[in-house]
Design goal:
By secondary structure, this protein is mostly beta strands. 6% of the residues lie in helices and 44% in strands. The protein folds into two domains: 102 residues, Immunoglobulin-like; 90 residues, no CATH class.
Length: 230
């Protein structure tokens, strides 16, 4: 994982609201599994990717780095398939994807790996515990972080997924957020911001640390849940 996180992130917070209508396909009707993708630190930006199992291919789709892709139907009835690109002569597999047994809506986080390949992390998007107005904080680093979200203090272990719902205070529109990392045995703030309350959407927050510079940061992506409920 260290290599994956290496130089993945620019220390920039991006908050993008994306909502698309899900088009019905034969694959959707067969299994109903949909995926959305976002990428971190890919050297080659742009271009189109496909999912493949055997001779079955999906329609090409983009791998954005500041939002989630449009929903992509999983190929056929497979729970394990390849992510790759179509070349002039053949399909080139770059990563394997194995879906969890539970769920039909998933987010796929795509990272660079050695040899020009890719690596993925799967997040269940239709987790019934994760509802509109809530935030899921995912620690992508191999270091424990801490946070103060309003009056709530949280601890984020490596690889953890934490669901948080801010409690509105009176008529206030925002609440204070601070994130901390350990540096030389002391707690150091690496990000501080005001976050708004919201009701009709939810948000994913990805915490990270750059292994080269040692700097930590986060990326946030807001999401409407219409595609999850279809």
């Amino acid at each position: 994982m260290n290599y994956i996180i290496l130089a993945i992130f620019l220390a920039i917070q991006v908050s993008v609201v994306a909502q698309e209508k899900v088009s019905e396909t034969s694959e959707t009707s067969q299994k109903g599994v949909l995926l959305r993708f976002t990428s971190f630190g890919l050297k080659e930006r742009g271009g189109e990717y496909v999912l493949a199992t055997g001779e079955t291919r999906t329609e090409p789709f983009a791998l954005p780095d500041n939002c989630f892709s449009k929903p992509v139907a999983a190929p056929a009835k497979a729970s394990e398939f390849a992510l790759g690109r179509n070349t002039a002569d053949e399909f080139r597999a770059l990563a394997s994807i194995k879906l969890p047994e539970t769920g039909k809506r998933f987010l796929v986080l795509v990272f660079p790996a050695r040899g020009g390949l890719l690596q993925t992390i799967i997040v269940r998007a239709d987790d019934p515990a994760f509802k509109p107005s809530q935030i899921m904080l995912i620690n992508l680093a191999q270091e424990t972080f801490a946070g103060e979200l309003g009056d709530k203090k949280l601890r984020f272990e490596p690889g953890s997924q934490t669901i948080f719902r801010p409690q509105r205070k009176g008529e206030l529109a925002n609440y204070q957020v601070r994130f901390f990392m350990n540096k030389n045995g002391k707690s150091k703030i690496f990000a501080a911001s005001l976050w708004p309350y919201f009701e009709n959407k939810r948000a994913f927050v990805f915490l990270y640390k750059d292994r080269v510079t040692g700097s930590a940061g986060y990326r946030s992506i807001d999401e409407f849940t219409g595609w999850v409920e279809k």
